[in-house]
Amino acid sequence: MKQNDHNKEAVVSIKGVYKSFEDKDVLKGVDLEVNKEENVVVMGRSGSGKSVLIKIIIGLLKPDKGVVKVFGKEMHKLSKNELIELRLKIGFLFQQNALYDSMTVRENIEFPLIRNKREISRDEVNKTVDDVLDAVGLGDTADQLPSELSGGQEKRIAIARALVLKPQLILYDEPTAGLDPITSVEINELIKEVRNRYNTGSIIITHDLVCAKQTGDRIFMLVDGKFVRHGDFEEVFETDDKRIKGFYEYNFIQ
Amino acid sequence: MGFAESAVMNTVTTPVSKPVISKKLDGFFSDVYDLFKFVTQFFKDAFAPPYEFKETIRQCYIVGYKSLPLVTVTAFITGMVFTDHSRPPLADFGASSWLPSFTGIAIIKALAPLITSLICAGKVGSRMGAELGSMKVSEQIDAMEVSAVDPYRFLVVTRVIATTFMIPLLVICSAMIGLMGSFINVYSHEQTSFNLFFYEAFSKIGYAEITSTIIRSIVFGFTIGIIGCYKGFTTTKGTEGVGKAANSAVVLIMLWIFIEEIVLVNFFNPFYYE
Q1: Testing the interface with A: which of B147, B152, B159 to mutate, by most A Cβ within 10 A?
Q2: Are B223 and B250 in contact (CB under 8 A)?
Q3: Structural domains of chain B, count
Q4: I want to staple B245 with a disulfide (CB 3.0 to 4.6 A). Which of A70, A137, B129, B140 is the partner?
Q5: Which domain covers residue B248, as residue numbers?
Q6: Interval A86-127: pLDDT, tens
Q7: What chain A residue is nearest to B2 in terms of C-alpha separation?
Q8: Which residues of B touch A87 (CB under 8 A)?
């Protein structure tokens, strides 16, 4: 699906974002706009600042300079309660999944639900959890602990947990990292299916070209803390820029 | 912005060329400031809804019930050994009959709160430091935050309430078990009856002493919870950081318990001897 097919209402708008850690400049003036129900992929080498960017969008890190608006609200000017309210509309998939290892799969998924909708009945909780487990194809794992799951299953459960509050935007941090190629393709399919089924917009952080090609409507290349190129997959990689070409060739040789 | 993040921000503003001592001082004051913010946050969140009753009760069970066997054994041995050590010097003065009241004062006023708290610093404080530390480095705390759940309220407030309520109960239990240990020792040597021993043991203990012990235990309990959680919550640098968090939690809790003991004993002393 091309960008112009999407609803043009921006859910994320980033302008001139800078971020440094000690003496290392990670982001050096990043601009990005993500529209409703659009899958945007941010690509770049390890250490290029992709994860920092996504953590700034969700409000886990604060930019040194610049404006980050999510659903029209300036993220870093919100009070604690306003931030909690806004985060109800956003799902987040961590690179290492970050499942609560002392809780079962069911407890992991219902954790945000029962704490944000305190009036919800036990039956409704169970039904919602079963629904999202079915959506990620793991309905039979509800009573297992995260340590009993494979990498791909953990990833699916983490996606289910991100979906349980029915977010309008999902942020994926390296969704295929550490997975075999077949499982990676399954996760990519799941990301597309989630968008179609739940009408969510997504920002997908990855250095995996297959993931970018399979899931992204628009792709942004982050090099040395700045976006150097953006467009659909073909547009981005049809270039003589060695930094992008090298990235493409190396990824496919790998 | 989380506490770890604010620590990062502090580092960002530190000029690179500062001398080592100055950097260490900066780090120390930055730590003190972060701890102060962490404590203030507790009082803001503890009294405002939503309350995490179920998790608080679970933490009370872990802190209280699961520490009971260790506290019981230690208190019993402490009572017996302390009585053994106290007998010869008292006998030198012909004051063996003071043994029950002497051990009563020592156990209730000093040994029970201090030893129980130090044991719990090791058992509970290190556990909190390591548990929250590993949650921090594996991004589980961030996962709570992004799923619109306040991790401070769920992880810290519940644990600190649990230690603040459970340590005084453990201290009361420890005092009674310690006195039982002392009684068994006294009975085996002097054949003092149960009633007489406990009558004598409590003869020098009034409301002021009991109030002081309970207030000190509450303070120690709060210290164990808040420092254990603070160290865990501000863990950085992976598994090595988790080990450091657990270790520094225990060291810092013990140091604070001794400092608080000095301050509080001097505060309460005038009430005993009025």
Answers
A1: B147
A2: no
A3: 1
A4: B129
A5: 53-272
A6: 999 999 999 999 999 999 999 999 999 999 888 899 999 999
A7: A60
A8: 145-148
